[in-house]
Amino acid sequence: MKRKTGVAAFTGIMLAAALTVMLVLAACQQLGEAEEPQKNLAMPYISIQPESRSLYTTDDISGLVLKVDVWEWEPSDGSISYQWYQFEDINEYCANGKGTEIGGATEKIYTPVITAEAGKKYYFYVMVTNTNSDALDKPTDFIQSEVATIAFSAPGDPLVPIIVRNPANASYGWGRSLNALKVEARLPRLDDGVAPGTITYQWYSNGERSTEGGTPEPEQNKASFIPGYDILHLNQNYFYVVVTNTLEGKTPAVAVSIPAIIRMDPGQRAATPRIERQPADRLFFTGKPIESLSVTAESPDMGLLSYQWYYNPATGNIEDTRWTSVDGATKDSFTPPAGTDGFYYVIVTNTNEGVVSDDKTAPLTSKAVQVRFAAPDSLTANATIKIPDFINKPENLRQYVRGYGGMHVAWDNFPALYAEDTELMYNPDKMGYNILRIMIRPDNIDIKETMEKMVNGSLRQFYQDYYKNVQIVNKYGGYVAASPWTPPKEWKSNNSINGGGNLIPSYYRLFATYLRTFAQLMYDNEAPIYCISISNEPNYVAGYDGCEWSPAEMRDFWVEIGHFTDGIRGYGGGKELPYVLTMNGESANTPYINREALKEPRSRAVIDLLARHIYGSRKDSLYNNAADKATLVRPDGSLTEVWMTEHNINSANATGYYNDSTWPYVWRYLNDVDLVMRLNNENAFVWWASKRFYSMVGDGQFGTTEHAPLPRGWALSHYARYTIDTTRIHLPDTNCITGTIKNAAGADVTINAINRGNSVINNDIDDMDNKTVRITAYVSQDGNEISMVIWTPTLYNGNDGYDLGTVKIDFADVPGFEIKGVKAHRSRGQLASEIFQQDDSVIVSEDRKSAYVTVPRSQILSVKFSK
Asked: CB–CB of 465/419 below 8 Å?
């Protein structure tokens, strides 16, 4: 059939259109006029806020105007009107609840009537109202604009900082996580650049809506602030921030925000209590006074706390069936009976009769602690470890230890990770890990469709416990890190999920939305995550899932996208977080690919965490290079954490694979942990596949039993159960460990300096078959516990190595530290009776200033001393 052309075609079309109109009009005459359905009033909005100005008194203000605008408003939604207001005193504005209406100022644009006087500030805002008498619910509604400030400074003085957006009001149920209060501020932009000076912040809390008499919140020199429950109360709370521009030799110029109202309402249900200080292990000498076990707890929602202590004669495993309640032990402290060894925990219950629902109680179980009774004793030691003074000498402290864990590999050729596997690894009474890394698959540009296929669809056999595994980690207070190997192929230059292509810059925003949607999906499925990276190994060209990013591309991504997880609640460390943390690309070896993003202030400001892998440049670390370490410093002075999120070593052939789950091959694995945590000073160690014959849990291949813990898994438990949430203590090179140890032939070897290439203890060479004794020490965040992990490795064939013998651990140099409790575990082989056993052989001196441990060749000992 041929198309009509020319005049004939046009005439035909016009006749057809006229006939259609006549038919429609006839129908309307028969049926009556069609009416639009009524609807609720549309809430007005503001597309362009009035802009603050910071000026010199000599600036020309004759053309100065304030503007507000509403874009793409539908007239059918109502009629928009404007009314401008002004005030000159913030506290007067707060007291009155509004400014003074400006007569005749009812347009989008307003010309302020002001005088250019040094030190003077004028405040303006506009009320935008929508009126619709046909609305179902109400005829009018309004919205208030941001407050615009016009401030004047004398020439040569610092200009007043501009507050672009004031902290916002908010309401919460008591006990919920709070979003951060945020102020958006900047220095004025002059014709020849940005005004000179340095911006600083100070947040204040107040009992009334005023900027006078507020309490400064310590260490809050940043643009955001999350109020703690220790300074909040029911009903209304008030917070404001003072933004200061400092110029050397000049009086600083300040801008004060409008105080934000944070309303706290009663909670929906009783909040779980917070344990501020856990009970501690206790060692008592026979015939000496017995101190009480105690717990310090708080009610997050001002409820009443109650307590019940429990006892077990044999184990600290909370799930054991032998726990019994202790009659009469219903206070926050409890004195154990003399001569009775065993374990204790306490259940703290918060009762709040004022909550909205019937869930008026919430319990929380403390950690289990060990109580031992012993006769005073001492041993003869062949060597001494002196724990250095880290209180008066902070140079003896190193990095914060976030934790340890493994990866859930979301590839179909890997064994499924089931909830029982995750329970084994992350239960604190079992292996005790706390970090799980998960994959974000790139199957489809619609991440919802991909997740549905994984969890409920064709891939269910591999990923049915994807959400449940995350829930288990969160249940135990851990952290979940999510990593994409590649964006979907549609957004890449090679149109493939394999390596060999990059993310096309025009798709940066779509990819950020993809990751943001994934984080929201995890939250919606009650499996919120702690952090999300933008790429696995952006500097490696993979023959499988992969995507390359140059350092400049990663920088530009963050500059364009910003902190893309704002508003998506995260979870980590046992609490809900205002947002999921962001992580830069996890490098395949050298961490220096992050330099470009860290040097650019705009990208640096929105990267929360860094990660790297130790394939290749193993001993490199951002912490070990002074210039790079300087880029890790946050505005508040803390360091950005660097996580080692992937490494894998195995025997590389089917014949050797049977060795990877044997005891002598534990040492290659632990040398990896030691490299990351001691030599590289990094904050977390995450192994590749959690469940594999060369990993922590068996998969049924090469001599392993599926779901069964492997020697490498128990080896990592020594670190996980004894050093999570601690700060590592540096053992100095000389005079820290002295004496002799024995080599494999039984000959004495003198301990000289440590942490060097020729050391017999803490050798610093990068060798996965390093056979020197390893000794590391850690202090808890409250300073009440010092932990040590000590191991005496052999070569992978079981030969060579050293016998540490009996060692005295001396705490005399640590001010105020006396040993009042001890807990230890030992591994010495692959049998069930040897792999990870409670150890009561640690002996404490009567003065409680030293202890004795024995660590023969091919053993691991972890020990915690409580004061």
From this structure: yes
Cβ neighbour number for residue 436 with a 10 Å cutoff: 27
Nearest to 485 by CA among 498, 473, 474: 498
Q: Measure CA of the first residue to CA of the last residue in the chain; give whole Å.
A: 95
3-state secondary structure at position 425: helix
For residues 591 and 595, give the distance between their C-alpha atoms in angstroms, rounded to a whole number: 8
Alpha-carbon distance of 837 to 861, in angstroms, equals 10
User: Buried b vs exposed e over 413-434: b needs ≥16 C-beta within 10 Å?
Assistant: ebbbbbeebbbbbbbbebbbbb
Tokens of 547: 């995507």
Instruction: Provide the token pair at 518.
Output: 């994934």
Quick: pLDDT tens for 446-482.
999 999 999 998 888 889 999 999 999 999 999 999 9
Angle of helix 551-561 relative to helix 508-524, nearest 10 degrees, comes to 70
SS3 sequence, 624-665?
Answer: HCHHHHHHCECCCCCECCEEEEECCCCCCCCCHHHHCCCHHH
Q: State the pairing for strand pair 293-294/748-750.
A: unpaired
Helix (H) or strand (E) run with residue 450 in it: helix 447-455
State which amino acid sits at residue 403.
G
3-state secondary structure of 710: coil
Length of the chain in terms of residues written: 867
Dump pLDDT digits (tens) for 568-607: 999 999 988 989 999 999 999 988 899 999 999 889 989 9
For strands 531-533 and 479-484, give the pairing: parallel
User: CB neighbours of 588 closer than 8 A, spacing ≥ 6?
Assistant: 537, 538, 539, 540, 613, 615, 616
DSSP codes, 94-137: HHHTS-EE-TT--SSEE-------TT-EEEEEEEEEEE-TT-SS
Contact yes or no for 678/773 (Cβ under 8 A): no
Question: Would you call 408 exposed, middle or buried from its count of C-beta atoms within 10 A (0-12, 13-18, 19+)?
Answer: buried
- Grouping H, G, I as helix, E, B as strand and the rest as coil, residue 792 is coil
CB 249 within 8 A of CB 338: no
Regarding beta strands 570-572 and 575-577, do their DSSP bridges make them parallel or antiparallel, or are they unpaired? antiparallel
**224-279, pLDDT tens digit by residue?**
999 988 899 889 999 999 999 999 999 999 999 999 999 999 988 998 999 999 99
Whether 433 and 404 have beta carbons less than 8 Å apart is answered as: yes
> Which structural domains are found in the chain, ordered by start?
53-232 (no CATH), 274-374 (2.60.40.10), 383-395+730-866 (2.60.40), 405-613+642-676+686-724 (3.20.20.80)
Q: Which two tokens stand for residue 324?
A: 């019994």
Residue 596, pLDDT score: 94
Interatomic CA distance for residues 306 and 511, integer angstroms:
49
How many Å is the Cα radius of gyration of the chain?
33
- In this prediction the pTM is 0.78
The angle, 0 to 180 degrees and rounded to 10, between the axes of the packed helices 666-674 and 711-723 is: 30
Long-range contacts: 48-51, Cβ < 8 Å, 24+?
49/145, 49/146, 49/148, 49/165, 50/124, 50/125, 50/126, 50/145, 50/146, 50/148, 51/148
Q: What digits encode the pLDDT tens for the residues 309-319?
A: 999 999 999 99
Q: What is the largest CA-CA distance in the chain?
A: 117
- State how far the Cα of 224 lies from the Cα of 241, in Å rounded to an integer: 9
Cα–Cα distance measured from residue 585 to residue 582, given in angstroms and rounded to the nearest whole number: 10
pLDDT band at 23 (very low <50, low <70, confident <90, very high): very low
CB contact set of 699 (below 8 Å; sequence gap of 6+): 415, 691, 692, 693, 706
